[in-house]
Amino acid sequence: MKKILTTILLAALYFTQSMAYSQVRLVIKDGTSDQQLKQQIERAVSVVMTEINRSQEKNLARLTLPEDHITREARQELNMLWSNEHFRCVDEELVERLLTSRDGYQVRGIPLSVNVMGGDDKLEYQEAVINFDKNGVITSIYYTINPELYGKNMRQNMQDKRFEVTDIKERMMILDYVEHFRTSYNQKDLKFLRQVFSDDALIITGKVIKVRRSEVSPAGNKVIYTVQSKQQYLENLSRAFRTNSYIKVQFDDVTIVEHPTIRGIYGVTVHQKWNTARYSDEGYVFMVWDFRNQDAPKIHVRTWQPDFIDKTKGQKLNPNDVFTLGDFDL
User: Fold this and answer.
1) Which end of the chain is more exposed for a tag (fewer CB within 10 A), N or C?
2) Is the pLDDT score of 5 beyond 50?
3) Angle at the Cα of 107 (from 105 to 113), degrees rounded to 5?
């Protein structure tokens, strides 16, 4: 009898430790004086991230998230990401500041350990941003860009005396959309990409080719460009989504420039790392974002240019050749 009791106690202790390891607790240190909102957001993050940790530990194929704390659309987007990447929150206690966004609130810097499904089982560190509506319900969870890059872009804006407070909020909104855009590739979210590209979007893709020596030019490499419509680009992307078990996209540099004469038009340049089981590359993505309708921003131009003209010789693309707003008649 004593042996049976000991076994039960050990099992209970193991179960308790396992549950404690899975649980996540958020503490909002500042950003709101509304105690009810603060408690709602703390509860929402704690419950949702704990459930994500439980699902990761049990290797569940699908997340079952509580409807009271997260919207239906956010649940769908998370499950799209979950089908390609499993992740968990690596900290049991999160102490963060609540930020005010255009549509509600957000908490940044949620530390995650990510395992790409079908990849090499290597765990990678990522950070997430969680967005909330004005009632404290989670509306989205995306991977963030590098926190230092985010801070640099925000500080650059706030230190420029020409910008009003509304422009700071616009820059925050732009970075949010850039993070959503980046995560949409990891999610294989064609719906969002179809929505965010304008119908007449210009898609330009650079490709390095070898050039034979001639009387007028030496042998070497050069970049040629292919122009696609939105429909052609999305059809090719859909094919890539189907034929690759995972797609991992990272942005490790971001620059935002406002159009000098058209209010609400921004040029966004990112350095992108693209990785799949079959193919990987690095290069520059330039986008023209139109935020004149802030409820439905659009991308009018997307270009990609390779990092290297000739990697074996260390010949990189000249920074002056990277596309900018000045290259397009808007």
Assistant:
1) N
2) no
3) 145
